[in-house]
């Protein structure tokens, strides 16, 4: 909740300063999450190995590019709402509610298993942010919904590598990226992924 001293001096027409600050706070969390996602995707791009190296390596960079565009859109919306954007690495670490990505150099399918779990969290939180802005700021809501289309498509690209011909997902039920990495690696070892 914004305090009187932390309220912006201005915001967009039709929103009051308190609402503008509340929407900006929601967007700030999305900014941190997407900055973190872009860095995590580059980390995977640099650390992926194994038989699926090239396909995964090349699949990741376009995702990074789009996520970085979304980061810029969100930052500019926060500024439009009259609030200072926090885009430093320290602010990401201080404000995030998730653990740092912990998988280093690993097989492509292990990384994809971990990314499946990462994307699940990003998508769930992005959907909540869209829901939380639906009534108060349709412009922000529309932007977040637009992001979801592409982010969910990228998630499908990841999951397609983890699904067997019967439709079972190697990472079903996993809630931490280390579980996803382990289950992805097991599926790859069995030849199911």
From TrEMBL:
Taxonomically, which superkingdom?
A: Bacteria
- Domain annotation Ferritin/DPS: ranges: 25-164
Pfam families in the record, alphabetically? Ferritin
Q: Which PROSITE patterns match?
A: DPS_1
Q: Which GO terms describe its molecular function?
A: ferric iron binding; oxidoreductase activity, acting on metal ions
Q: Which InterPro entries match?
A: DPS_DNA-bd, DPS_DNA-bd_CS, Ferritin-like, Ferritin-like_SF, Ferritin_DPS_dom
Q: PANTHER family under this entry?
A: DNA PROTECTION DURING STARVATION PROTEIN, GENERAL STRESS PROTEIN 20U
- Family statement: Belongs to the Dps family.
Its protein name is DNA starvation/stationary phase protection protein
């Amino acid at each position: 909740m914004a305090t009187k001293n932390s309220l912006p001096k201005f915001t967009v027409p039709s929103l009051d300063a308190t609402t503008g600050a509340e929407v900006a706070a929601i967007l700030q969390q999305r900014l941190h999450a997407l900055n973190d996602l872009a860095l995590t995707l580059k980390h995977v791009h640099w650390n992926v190995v194994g038989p699926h190296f090239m396909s995964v390596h090349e699949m990741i960079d376009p995702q990074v590019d789009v996520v970085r565009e979304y980061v810029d859109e969100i930052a500019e919306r926060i500024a439009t709402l009259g609030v200072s954007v926090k885009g430093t690495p320290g602010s990401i670490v201080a404000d995030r509610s998730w653990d740092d990505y912990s998988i280093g150099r690993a097989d492509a399918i292990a990384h994809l298993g971990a990314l499946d779990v990462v994307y699940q969290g990003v998508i769930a939180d992005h959907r909540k942010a869209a829901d939380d802005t639906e009534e108060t700021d349709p412009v922000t809501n529309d932007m977040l919904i637009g992001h979801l289309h592409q982010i969910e498509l990228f998630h499908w690209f990841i999951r397609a590598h983890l699904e067997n011909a019967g439709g079972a997902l190697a990472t079903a039920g996993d809630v931490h990226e280390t579980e996803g990495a382990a289950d992805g690696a097991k599926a790859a070892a069995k030849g199911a992924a």
